[in-house]
Amino acid sequence: MSVAIITGSAGLIGSEATKFFAAEGFDVVGVDNDMRARFFGAEASTQWNRQRLQAQLGDRYKHEEIDIRDEDAVASLFERYQNDIALVLHTAAQPSHDWAARDPKTDFGVNANGTLNLLEATRQHAPEAVFIFTSTNKVYGDAPNRLPLVEQTTRWEINASHEYVDGIPEDFSIDQSMHSLFGASKVAADVLVQEYGRYFDMRTACFRGGCLTGPSHSGTQLHGFLAYLMKCTVTGTPYTVFGYNGKQVRDNIHSADLISAFYAFFQNPKSAAVYNIGGGRYSNCSMIEAIGLCEQITGRPMDWSYSESNRAGDHIWWISSLARFRADYPDWKLKYDVPEILQEIYDANVERWVEATVV
Ligand SMILES: NC(=O)c1ccc[n+]([C@@H]2O[C@H](COP(=O)([O-])OP(=O)(O)OC[C@H]3O[C@@H](n4cnc5c(N)ncnc54)[C@H](O)[C@@H]3O)[C@@H](O)[C@H]2O)c1
Known about the structure:
Its EC number is 5.1.3.10. This protein is about 40% helix and about 20% strand.
């Protein structure tokens, strides 16, 4: 038996990974307590996705309603499967930097202590398992805002002659910048994951994501930008763009492309690996470019307004350098760009969103 323990299994990345690894023949044990609904309200609940997984995957999927902060529950789950555990994919999190400031202790408890519980349970019961952690580009804080950026018609861009023109690499400083409390709790987790790799010689990886996206995102105002933008356009919900003239740039990676990167790592793992991962130069957009695309796809104008003040610690321009990951895994390729991602989000959700508006 090959078991994959996937935390946050009803969330965007966790649910797509659950389907992927079940199809690869793993017995997937999913850990998710729907805390996303506690963070962001009922509209962001991932319960619908959990039910869908249970219906689609049957015996291949076992759901555990465990809170990753519960050390004893996590330990006894790992004790049950021991060395059958081939993979731990840790995606459960408090994922929003704005939300973290409302309740820093809960944020740190979930993101940092929860990660420590999982690392320790892996070390005690399944030390040979591959441990993959979904970190974030927020570990670099707002230091990218100090790069030489140029305002163009629809976006901010890095000076064309700068060494980071193809994206920001992993050796960029994570120190002495504004991270948001979310960024700080993720840094703690990221460094712990590296340390368990280095110190205990475990096979761990931190994937520092740009914007992760896809049709299964339960998009909400504080998290899940492309999915929420599309939802607002479809349902006529007003949307506010915060700061930077709406020209802030994000790179966006489809969940399928991210999971194929996880799989490449799983098949040929390393110790204490750190990778920036995102859409890179291939898949990125500014806010106003994304709004234009949503309007084009839905055929309706979006009701959006602009607020001068940017979110604290928000990036003006972020594009991930994919060079390190590509050097280690040369067969991996991105398949989706932003227009394709938005079209798929639209196709997969339009009926559900319209129905919910009518009711
Ligand atoms: N989505 C992005 O743009 C993005 C960008 C960079 C990094 N990340 C990271 O990637 C990971 C996955 O992101 P996502 O977009 O799939 O998030 P998501 O919110 O869709 O999924 C996370 C899941 O974890 C569950 N969860 C939260 N706290 C829990 C707890 N204490 N115990 C058990 N389950 C819990 C939630 O209910 C949710 O279903 C997160 O670690 C996030 O920080 C996301």
